[in-house]
Structures are given as C-alpha cells and as structure tokens.
Amino acid sequence: MRIGLITDTHIAWEEKHLPPKVMDIFQGVDLIFHSGDIYAHSVLDELEKIAPVLAAYGDDDYPSDDKRIKDKHILELEGHRIWVIHEGPYLPLPEPWITKWWQRRSTPDEPGYGKPDIIVSGHEHSTRIEQTDGILCINSGSPNLLHYRRGPGTVGILELKNGKAEAEIIQL
88 to each of 28, 31, 45, how far by Cα in Å? Predict the structure, then answer.
C-alpha cells in the first residue's frame, strides 16, 4: 500500500490550489493523509481526485462537518497501527517521554487503543522521519510553507509492504 503524506498546506485566499507537482507525485497512491492546517477544504477535494483522503484537524483549522477530518485517525493498515494527527511528539526525546506522550493522546474506548506503530503528523513545517521507542514518526513538512517560508516545499510517501513500513520525503 502506497500512501501520500501532506500537511500544513494553509491554502486559503492567496493560493487557490496545491502546487501541481503534488498531484504528479501522488499519482497512483492508494490513500492520502493530510495532517492538518488545511484551511480550505477544497484542498481535500482536489486530493480526493487521486485517492481517498483522511485529514486531521490542525490548530488553525475551524470545526466542520466534513467526515474526512477528525482530531485523530487511528487505522490498522497492512499490520501497522497508524495515527494521523496534527501535532505529533517533539523529538528527539528520551524514550520514556514518548511513551507518556502517546498514553496521554490515547483513550481506552478508542478503536485500536494502544501504542501506535506509526505517527503521521504535521504542525512544525519541517520534515522528519525518525524511529523512537518503536514508533516511526513522520512529518512531511509543507508543500508550500516549508520552514514557514513561501515557496516549493515537501510531501511524503509511506510505503507499507510485506509487514514493513518505509517513508520518504520528496522535495517539490
């Protein structure tokens, strides 16, 4: 399974669409995760022309009845428990801290309750692929505001295959 990763698009008034290269890179993905700070939901509509989209509310997003957006998505895909959230753990942290972080973010009544294998997040406008405390943490940056600077940024691809997870960051 191939998953497109995007976050912190902040598409609103001055930009109406995602950078065209995003659409090219995501061709052929099975699913797309948007890790929040979406602003205009038309971004999700645009991405959904390629593949189904699941998104997390960002700290700058307004509540909506859009079924694609939740505070946190918990998925079981190809043997991996995946969380799609906006604000992930700040790394690097000593391992006991990451465990306390995911325990605070998880509640026993949630389907798939427990420690995630993969956390896909955003918020920081910087890229990260880091394994800590048995969790693969991925932040794909931003396609248009990487490091809070307007211009070409990054997206990510998460490949789940044969029980393994591999992620890559792609510069636009």
Answer: 27, 20, 25
